[in-house]
What does this fold into?
Amino acid sequence: MQVGDSIVLTIHTAGHTSAPLGYHDHDLALMRKWKKLAGEGVSHIRDKINDDVIQLRKSANVSYGMINGDEKVRDFLQTTTIDLDDIAVILLITDGLFIPKADPDAEEDWDYYGRLYLEGGLDKMYDTVCKKENSDPELTKYPRYKLHDDASGIAITLATIDNE
It folds into this structure.
């Protein structure tokens, strides 16, 4: 099951990583605006777009799902059934483990997430995120709402990777 700021990733025994339920970035429009303002040299961007953030959050469980106690979240829960024969690891992560991107429109590189996990587990993923976040304390290189977001992850190991 997946909703809002969380994602399910599967690392296959052949080594590649996929997002079986897909991914929709409900913050994309605001991150584009953030990037534009940063490019113009605007400081304290979060303050400048605060009204936009409030409007977006008001649309939780209307235009995107968020687990926040609202019963309407049921309309946004996503499920699927997958064959586990070639799945080595299932990762369930929140957006705090999403690797900051300079370009909000860049596709997520799920294979990179999988490689990080295989190199050092959830700790390696978290350390990579923190290193990028800490390299951009002004939030201008990697558009995001705050220096650090809450980060949670669960890894379920089912098999070994073929090339390990």
The mean pLDDT is 92. Residues 6-157 form one domain. The CA atoms of residues 27 and 118 lie 28 Å apart.
